[in-house]
Amino acid sequence: MDARLAAYDRPVPRYTSYPTAAQFHTGVGPDQQRAWLKDLKESSATLYLHVPFCTELCWYCACNTVAVNRPDSLAAYATALETEIDRVAELAPELIVSGVQWGGGTPSHLGADRLIALSERLSGRFDRVSGAEVSMEIDPRTCDDRTVEAMVRMGINRASMGVQDFDPAVQKAINRMQSAEMTGDVIARLRRAGIHRINLDLVYGLPLQTLDGLARTLDAAVALEPDRFAVFGYAHVPWMKARQELIDEKTLPDGPLRAEMAALVARRLAEAGYVQIGLDHYARPRDPLSGAAAGGRLRRSFQGYVVSESPWVVGLGASAISSLPQGFTQNAAAAGRYRAMIEEGGLATVRGLELDDSDRLRGEIISRLMCVNSVDVGDICRRHDVRPAEFLAGIEDLPKLVEDGLVVLDGDRLSVTDIGKPLVRCVAAAFDGHLAHGQGRHSRAI
């Protein structure tokens, strides 16, 4: 690792939002969610439905998931989701759905019939933009023919599946055994059914992972010809997710090796014809994600980089986050508490954050940095009635970022250099007005 950059390999947010979820507080609850949904009126938004259940837990995963296999628990959760859909529709009857994302966990763990019923409830309560993307996260290990049939009935037109790494030793270390052949079989089945848009998720920095092993995983994954890749650096946060305590920290790659892995991913996928999108996504040149990046229309949300004309997201389900014009709200994380709050007749919002003028200005700058690696700070400041020179003078870390070669400042335009792109989260952090005062603990920058 470049000696200049080693100092930047520190915990920083991933900036899927600004302010980040670490700043959410309990002063925002159901009353704000109710009022903010009513104010959407004729707006469009993506619907995100979270299903926090898996057959078994992968030890590396930091998502809000639990292993639940009892039919009555799954049925009760599906019923709560249906009820929440109805409540949101009553509050925002004119809302136009620009896209639907099913995430988890493993959404298909609810069962085909429940998924179809939920999908039909959505269609019956909301108007949808013609040609809207409807995506679902799936686990190739549990994706059978009935699941694929249900996905077709639900109108799913993009499937996203986790691979992480195909090395059996790494898979054993993270409790996720999944062969390339199994993954390929599921992709072929989806394509035969008419679901051709395929995303694969990979992770570097996993226990026992090596450069050679990662290279073999990349070769096998590219051979499956997905449309997009999302490649994340493993976030070891056992203080947040106790399951990660089952991973031996001594087997994790160190900082310099993680940097080599990140460079290998970028190089190998570029050689295979993929365009790097922002920090951690890759897409075919003709993919809508590549077009959005080239045209400056790319957005970053809690679901990663997305193509959407609307910046708003309405989250449904346990732990789901809504991004609304006034701010962010989040549902109760525990499935039991979420269900109880819905069954009591209200909404399940337990925390969030109302945006102020500074949040909006800084959020727009951070979003541009994370999406396109450059930002016209002057233009954004003037639109927010702020003097650019005074604002930039208050960014304490900016001179060092320039000195270390991570960014170039040309007048009021800031551009991230090739050296700085892997550390764009650190560049974004310089504009974070909450980070110095926040109590959240984050994953490493590399």
Written overview of the protein:
This protein has 446 residues and is of the alpha/beta class. It has two domains: 20-354, tm_1862 like domain (pyruvate-formate lyase- activating enzyme, Alpha-Beta Horseshoe), CATH 3.80.30; 357-437, Arc Repressor Mutant, subunit A. It is built from 16 helices and 19 strands. The protein has helices at residues 3-6, 30-38, 71-91, 112-125, 145-153, 168-174, 180-192, 211-223, 255-271, 288-294, 335-343, 357-372, 377-383, 388-393, 398-403, 424-429; strands at residues 44-51, 53-54, 66-67, 96-104, 127-138, 158-164, 197-204, 228-233, 275-277, 281-283, 299-301, 304-306, 313-316, 321-324, 327-331, 349-354, 374-376, 407-410, 413-416. The radius of gyration is 21 Å and the shape is globular.
Protein traits:
globular; nine-stranded mixed β-sheet; Arc Repressor Mutant, subunit A; alpha/beta; 446 residues; three-stranded antiparallel β-sheet; 16 helices; pyruvate-formate lyase- activating enzyme
Summarize the structure.
The chain is of the alpha/beta class.
Tally of distinct domains? 2
CATH superfamily of the largest domain, please?
tm_1862 like domain
Strand content: 15-25%
CATH topology grouping of the largest domain: pyruvate-formate lyase- activating enzyme
Tell me the strand order in the biggest sheet. Answer: 9-10-8-7-6-5-4-1-13
| Head-to-tail CA distance between termini | 10 Å
Q: Pairing-aware structural class of the strands and helices?
A: alpha/beta
Sheet with most strands: 9 strands, mixed
Instruction: List how many beta strands DSSP finds.
Output: 19
Oligomeric state as shown = single chain
Rg calculated over all Cα atoms: 21 Å
CATH architecture of the largest domain: Alpha-Beta Horseshoe
Low-confidence stretches: none
User: What is the general shape?
Assistant: globular
The first-level CATH class of the largest domain is given as Alpha Beta
| Number of H- or I-type helical stretches | 16
Compute the average pLDDT. 93
Q: What helical percentage do the residues reach?
A: 25-40%
